[in-house]
Amino acid sequence: MTRTPARPFRSREWFDAPGRSDMTALYLERYMNYGLTPDELRSGKPIIGISQSGSDLVPCNRIHLQLVERVKAGIRDAGGVPMEFPMHPIFENCRRPTAALDRNLAYLGLVEVLNGYPIDAVVLTTGCDKTTPASIMAACTVDIPAITLSGGPMLDGWHEGELVGSGTVIWRSRRLLGAGKIDEEEFLRRAADSAPSPGHCNTMGTASTMNAVSEGLGLSLPGNAAIPAPYRERGQIAYETGRRIVDMAYEDLRPSKILTRESFLNAIRLVSALGGSTNAQPHIVGMARHAGVELRPSDWMEFGYDVPLLANVQPAGQYLSERFHRAGGVPAVMWELLQAGKFDGDALTVTGKTQAENLNGREATDREVIRPFDQPLKEHAGFLVLHGNLFDFAIMKTSVISEEFRNRYLSRPGHEDVFEARAIVFDGSDDYHHRINDPSLNIDENCILVIRGSGPLGWPGSAEVVNMQPPDALLQRGITSLPTLGDGRQSGTSDSPSILNASPESAVGGGLAWLHTGDTIRIDLKNGRCDALVDEAEIARRKDDAPPPIPESNTPWEELYREKTGQMGEGAVLEFAVKYRGTSNRTPRH
Ligand code: FES
Ligand code: MG
Fold first, then answer.
1. Which residues lie below 8 Å from residue 563, measured CB to CB, with a gap of 6+?
2. Ligand 1 atom closest to 93 (CA)
3. Residue 14 belongs to what H/E stretch?
4. Which residues pair with 500 in a beta bridge?
5. Per-residue pLDDT tens for 152-165?
6. What pLDDT does residue 1 have?
7. Which of 9, 99, 214, 418 is most deeply buried (CB count within 10 A of its CB)?
8. Which residues cross the membrane (predicted)?
9. Axis crossing angle, helix 168-178 with helix 184-193, rounded to the nearest 10
10. 200: CA distance to ligand 1 center in Å?
11. Measured in angstroms, how far is the CA atom of residue 92 from the centroid of ligand 1?
12. What integer pLDDT is reported at residue 335 of this predicted model?
């Protein structure tokens, strides 16, 4: 039986172009040199690209080197021709000065590959934090049928009988090290135990959050995000993903048909219910912008803030990915939201069905891990959006505000949710590390630690540095966190209730540039305001001072990134790239 694609496959233009047998021969011959036959390539079957994000440099995604065989088997069985190619590596923990530089670079590279080669549809392999948004952003720009496949999280980590989650254990152990309760060897043992198998972070950090967001957007098969990397179901969903993308190629089911404002609002609500990473904000906004979908800063408050925390997963909760998966994973959380009327069930997905159809029968099986909507871990668990004279936009993750923090800062009678603190200002993380234990700063519990020069242009790339820990002297007194604020980001695995992603950043003249150590900052969570109590005349005078120092660009890409990238509030995308959408509608010239 021959199937007719809903739109002619673009690979025909390469391998079967009428009247261009000269070019066609050239296109075909080298793909034959590893054993493909001209019949295969001219049979009319879709060519399915597989974007390989795993490598020795990206251990979080390395499982894809094996999984890809199951993807290829699925593609072959469904009647497609697989072609695997490498994606620019992005590994969160080791890339200096920050992996954030790579999201837009991998995006650019992937756009060129998907657009310039005979690829009809693509499997986007994802895992580590930015591999997911980079892949989806590129799929939006090119707009060919695309499906994401996560490599899945690591198994749960255990240390001396306790669950230790990747990333989260680092932030918690860092405090113990600072307080003198553990030594460096014990620190490394705890870290190693948090990462017991192949896979990405097993906490609800940025990797798990972004793969969940892909499910929430309708871009992966249901359940894809949370299946641990070593589980048999991971290989099985790789196979099913391979099968499904072939049908999607025939159906011409492209990102532009799936990604709507409603699907992005679903993703925003899902992040709240998961207690997901603050990095979801620039990534969701970035993907929406490349998809041509308008999101407003107020959407995070209007649609996300009131959603309760349902997933009992670190850092906001207790458990890790394995147990989360067994409890029902992301579909079970979306099921709760759907029943509560907080999810648009009509949104279309890569299955060709709606979210509501996919979620039928996906109720959670372990209520300790995935709570019912009306018995959540925490009410109003979304991101707070703040503005004021220091920035136009910043967010705060409320699901990680601890009781201790709430009692100390947010519960004074008559002043609930309002506090004032003395600013201690650092110019980047080197400055922080040099000076945090300097006794002359007199840092106490009435201080707010501020870091600037850590945004997209200042760092460059925007660094995960805002979750600064208090000086050792305070840690030794049992003060484990101070309020923090900055124009950088923080790890999705961090349990710090920071005010972060402040835009515009200090490097482009944002308000943090004129802030001085010793200024009082007033934070009013109820009204979403954060202001330095400095009068207008003084602010105007300080604006004439030399701007805070930032490092020079050290590579060509750093320079280009700084020239072309926007602010975090707007997704930190390559601004000029947003206008390119649906490039696959125009086949590149011979
Ligand atoms: Fe790669 Fe967390 S560091 S997933
Ligand atoms: Mg990170």
1. none
2. 3
3. helix 12-15
4. 395
5. 999 999 999 999 99
6. 56
7. 214
8. none
9. 170
10. 5
11. 6
12. 98
Question: Taking residues 325-340, what's their average pLDDT?
Answer: 98
Q: How far is CA 144 from the centre of its chain?
A: 22
* Ligand 1 atom with minimal separation from the 58 CA: 1
Which parts of 64-183 fold into alpha helices (H)? Answer: 64-77, 100-116, 131-142, 168-178
Residue with tokens 């609800």: 204
Coil, strand or helix: which one is 64? Answer: helix
Phi-psi region of 171 (alpha: psi -120 to 50; beta: other; left: phi over 0): alpha
DSSP 489: B
Distance 282 CA to ligand 2 centre (A): 13
How far is the C-alpha of 192 from the C-alpha of 538, rounded, in Å? 50
Structure tokens that stand for 326 in this block: 């067994």
Amino acid letter for position 2 = T
Which residues lie across from 395 on neighbouring strands? 385, 500
Ligand nearest to the CA of 200: 1
Q: Cβ distance 391 to 510 under 8 Å?
A: yes
Cα(579)–Cα(213) distance, integer angstroms: 23
Task: Please give the structure tokens belonging to residue 49.
Answer: 């690209």
Report the alpha-carbon distance of residue 286 to residue 568 in Å, rounded.
9
Q: What is the pLDDT of residues 46-87, one digit of tens each?
A: 999 999 999 999 999 999 999 999 999 999 999 999 999 999
| C-beta atoms surrounding 415 within 10 Å | 13
Q: C-alpha angle 441/446/447, rounded to 5°?
A: 50
Decide if 275 contacts 315 (C-beta within 8 A): yes
Answer yes or no: is the C-beta of 142 below 6 A from any ligand 1 atom.
no
How wide is the angle at C-alpha 314 spanned by C-alphas 313 and 317, nearest 5°? 60
